[in-house]
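Appendix C reproduces, verbatim, an entry submitted by the partner laboratory led by Prof. M.T., so that reviewers can inspect both the input and the predicted structure.
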Amino acid sequence: MIRVSIGTAGVLGLAQVQMAVVPTTAYLMLGERCAMNCAFCAQARQSQASEMVLSRVSWPAFPLDQACVRLEEAERRGTVRRCCIQVTVGQDAYQDTLTAMRSIRQATRLPLDVAILPADMEQVAELIAAGADHVGFGLDAACERVFRQVKGQHWRRMCDVIAQTASQYPGRAAVHLIVGLGETEQEMVERMSWVHDRGAVVGLFAFTPVRGTALADRPPPSLAQYRRMQAARWLIVRGGACMPDFAFDERGALRGIAVPGWPALLAGGEAFRTSGCPDCNRPFYNERPGGTMYNYPRPLTAGEAQQAIQEMEIKG
């Protein structure tokens, strides 16, 4: 069995789902309750949230062979352009991941990403040999201080594996970072710059409180904070910006950008779309339909882009 995000299940015809925006990547999940105990995660070891939930999305289970058939059909129709497997930490998680990857690869040639916690570089090499287009690392925290608070130990080991993967397999490492876990904006910009400098993909998420998790009562980041981090990420990744181009106040909040004409660079709106691997739009992973739109899962209108720039609360 493999779990399928409810939006993906709708696209694959495994469930009837009304969707304002459809996912362009097929999102799958392997494993039971995670051995890790990340304070924000519904799948954490001590979480009281449903095992069917990740972030605010439900993930019903289906037979793997059935999912593979539907993936092949969706690829032929052109309704999905990538597949991403989320893996919880467990005793057989790694071998189960390789098995699932091989089954999916036999059924489809869709680019295949795997968000997993590799034990070492040998496992990274094996995942890439099995067909992983990207190996995704849930670093999540921008700095060691926050990592210890919300995830636990092994910050340095995880950073080392990320750096080694990015060095040995250029363009194949993807790093997930969550805004709003207690970091300063300066710490987040420094971490995004660190990831990009090593040639890894920067995937940005907004912290989303989930009932039953240790951080259920923590509010999400303000929209202004998230917009500033989206803009900083885009300017680093696409605009060639580096740390000296960003000015921070005494609390570490971003207050100035020295990139000439930066509002015009952001006017297309791409900075405020879902970020990560190609074709990953994660509709409503951090949002409720009709609620605050942290990550746009589609192109923005000119008006929406201008509004997002204003929401940064930084003067150009």
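The first helix runs from residue 6 to 11. Additional entries are available on request from the coordinating office.
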